[in-house]
Amino acid sequence: MDLELTGKTALVTGASRGIGYAVARQLAFEGCDVAVVARDAAALAKAAGALSAETGRRVVPVAADTVLDESVAAMVATATEQLGRVDILVNAAARSAGAGGSALSVPTAGLLEEIDVKAIGYLRCAQGVVPQMRERGWGRIISVAGLAARQTGALSATMRNAAVAAMTKNLADELGRYGINVTAVHPGVTRTERIAGLIARRAAERGVSEQEIADEMGAGYAIGRIAEPAEIADLVAFLASPRSASVTGDAIACGGGKIGSVHY
C-alpha cells in the first residue's frame, strides 16, 4: 500500500531512541522529511545522522524540552524553518512511569510532574503545530500513550495515558473540520532499549536466559511475546498518512492483544 507520505514533513518528539526513533525511521522510509526532537542534543544528533544515512531523507535534530512553553515554541519554529512546514506531529516524548503501589501513597508532586511531561507536554506540542495545519487544511497528530490507560496498579501510568486519550478526542472533535486527524496509540510492553536492559538485569539476577524473561513478559499478550518498536511505528505511519482519512478521535491498542480485557 502506498501511504502517500512522500513529500510530507513530520515532527517526532522523543525520537532519540525507542518508539520515537522507530517512528521517525519508518516515516522517513515512507518519504517524509523529519525533525527529530529530544532533550539530549548529543544523542539526538547521533540519531538524526543515523536516520538520514539509512533512509536517504532529510532528518534534522531539534533539541527541546516539552515541559517548557518557550522550548516548544522554539521547537516548532525551528522545525518549520528547517522543513518548510510541519504536516505531521508524533508525540512520543515521555519518561518511564513511576512505580506501582497504593494510590493512597503516591507522591502527588511526582504524579503531577509525570502528567505534565506526557499529557500536558503532548498538548503543548499540538497547540504549537495546529495553527499552520489549520491554515493549510490538513494535518495529522498522533500521540503515543500506553495500555496502562486501561489497567490499574501504577496510578501515574494510568492517569497520564488516560489523559492522552481524553486530549486526543477533544482535539479531534475540534479539528476534524479543518482536515486535521488526531489519534493515539496504546503500546503495551515494547522491546525498547529500556526494556532490553530490564530483561538483561532480571535474567542476570535470577540466573536464567534473557529469552525466558522475555517470554514471561510476553505471556500476558495474545501473540505470546512483547511488541517490537517497528511494529508500533507501522501503525503510526498509517495513521500519519492521507490513507487514514476516516480514523480520528480514537486510541488504538497495538500491544499484541492484552489477554482478558474487552474494549469497545
Amino-to-carboxy terminus distance? 27 Å
**CATH topology grouping of the largest domain:** Rossmann fold
Oligomer: single chain
Give the overall form: globular
What is the CA-based Rg, rounded? 18 Å
Please write the string of helix (H) and strand (E) elements.
Answer: EHEHEHEHEHEHHHE
In which range does the helix fraction lie? 40-55%
Give the helix tally.
8
The second-level CATH architecture of the largest domain is 3-Layer(aba) Sandwich
Number of DSSP E strands:
7
- What composes the largest sheet? 7 strands, parallel
**CATH level-1 class of the largest domain:** Alpha Beta
Percentage of β-strand residues: 5-15%
- Secondary structural class: alpha/beta
